[in-house]
Specification:
Blueprint: H1 2-14, E1 28-29, E2 33-36, H2 39-50, H3 55-69, E3 79-85, E4 91-96, H4 133-144, H5 149-162, E5 164-165, H6 168-184, E6 202-203, H7 206-218, H8 221-224, H9 226-239, H10 245-250, E7 254-256, E8 259-263, E9 266-270, H11 277-289, H12 293-296, H13 301-321, H14 332-336, H15 338-343, E10 371-378, E11 384-392, E12 448-452, E13 455-463, H16 468-480, H17 486-491, E14 495-496, E15 504-506, H18 513-521, E16 526-528, E17 536-542, E18 548-552, E19 559-562
Helix pairs in contact: 2-3, 3-4, 3-5, 5-7, 11-13, 11-16
Amino acid sequence: MFRRLTVFIVLFCTLGCSNRSIRETGLITRQAMVVSAHPLASAVGTKVLKRGGNAVDAAVAVQFALAVVYPDAGNIGGGGFLVFRQKDGHIDALDYREKAPAAAHRNMYLDERGEVIEELSLKGHLAAGVPGTVDGMVVAHKKYGSLPWAELVQPAVLLAANGFPLTKKEAKKLNEERKDFLKYNTRRPEFILKDHWKEGDTIRMKELAFALTQIRDRGRSGFYEGAVADSIVAEMKRGGGLISHQDLASYQSVWRKPITAHVGEYRIISMPPPSSGGIALVQLLTISSGYPLGEWGYKTVKTTHLMIEAERRVYADRAVHLGDPDFHKVPVEGLLDTSYIKGRMTNFTPGKATDSDDVSAGTPAPPESPNTTHYSIVDVQGNAVSVTTTLNSSFGSKVFVAGAGFLLNNEMDDFSVKPGAPNSYRLVGGEANAIAPGKRMLSSMTPTILEKNGKLYMVVGSMGGSTIITTVYQIILNVIAHGMPMQGAVNAGRFHHQWRPDWVLSEWGALGFGTGLRLWLMGHKIAPYVNGTIGRASGILVLPDGRLEGGADPRGDDASAGF
C-alpha cells in the first residue's frame, strides 16, 4: 500500500501542465531553412545556403560548427547517420557510425566472474570507438556537395580560434562535467577547465582549431593520418585505449539503402541498420495507422495507451533482431511486413496494460545522458538532409585528444557489453549486437524524411539515446494525426516506453494528471524521466503553399534560421 501511495504521489507531482504551446508556429521562411542545436551552427548553415550551396554543403558546415559550439554532442570524434532526399525524389543514406577497434573483443568489459565492470564502457579511453564523422562528411561532400570543401570547414575553424560566447545551458554543463574532465584525461584540458563558467563567457579552442585546419586543408587525411591521427593514437597509449593507426586508416563510411515504407498517404524515409530507428519508426507508425488516433484525440487515455503498447512491442523486437548488417543478418523485410507488424498487437487489450514479461520479440517472416544532436536542412532547390550525430553520452568518454582538442566518443557502450545486460540507457541487447572487431554498434538514431503524395513534406530527427525513436514517432503523430504545427509538435510533452525496464517515463506535462491517473489504474507504471526532458528535436515542415516552418526544440538552445 505504501509503495502504491508513493508512486501515486510521484505521479501527481510529475504530471502537471506544460508551459510549451502545442499550437505555437515556428519560424517560417520561403526558400531554405536550417534547424540545429545551436543558433551559431544554424547561422553557419544558412550562410552556406545563401552562397548557393546545397543541403549537403550546409550539412557539412553545420556538422563541423557543432563540433565547436556544441561540444557535448556535436563532434569530429564520434559518428552519425545522414538521410538525403534530392529534389527529384532520389534518396540515399550514409552510415558513418563508429566501429569497434580491431583489438576489441566481446568480453572486454567483463571481470573474471563474467560480470560487467561498472562504467568501463562509459568513461575513459577504453570506451571509444573508431570515429566516423570526418570520413562521413568527406564522403557525403564528394558525392553530393557543390561548394569547395575548405569553404565549408572554415567557419568552424574561425569559431574555434576566435572563440564564441557560451549560452547559459552550455556553461552549466561545462561546470557539471569538470570533475570527470579532470579524472579521465591524461593531460589537463586547460581550455575547458575554468573554475566556473557563466553565460556570455568566451571559450576558445586553439587545439581544436588546429585539428579543423588540418581537416580543412587535407580532407580525410587531415584526421585519419598525420598529426591528428598521431595525437589520437598517443592519447590511446597514455590512457589504455585501443584505437590504432590501422583502425583510423581503414575506417570507411558506407552508403546504405534507406528504410522506406508507405503509411497512408505518407512515405517514410529513414535510416537502416545499424540504426534501429528506421525499422522501429515504421513499425510504430504502421501500428498507429490501424487506429483512429485523430478521432481519439491528443493526450487522451485511448491514444496514449495504444502508443505505449506499440512502443513496448517494438522495443522488444529491437533487443533481439537489430545489429550491424555487415555482421548479423537483420530480417529487415520481415520486420517491415505489414501483416507481421499488425500481428504484434494481437494480445493488445484496450483497457489494460500488458506486462512486459508477457511480451517477447516476435518471429518476423523471412525475406541509444543521452546526448546526441540532430539537424534538419532544406535548400533552395528543395533538396533535404536529415542528420543525427553523436558522441553517445554527454561529452562522450570525457576524454579530450591532447594536441587536437576534441572529445572522443563512448559508443562502445552501445554494444551489448554482455548480451542480456542493460546499457547506460537500460536498453537490453542480444547476440546480434555483441562486440566484435570492426563492427558497428546498434543505434537508436532516427534521421527521417517524409513525403506526402510524392512531395517533400517533413524533415525531422532528435537526440536522446533510446528515447530518440519515440520522440520522432510522437512528433510525426502530433503533426499528421493531431494537426499541430511543426513548432507545436516539437514543443509537446513526451513519454517513452522501451519494453525493459517496464516503466512509462514521462516529461512534466506529457500526460496530464487525469490521463496519467487512469493509465496507472490500467496497470501502467509511470515515473518522471530522470533527465527531466526527453529528446531535443529539430524539424522542418513544408506547408501547403511551399513555405517552410521550423521546429526548434525549447528544451535546448536549438534555433531555426533561413530565408
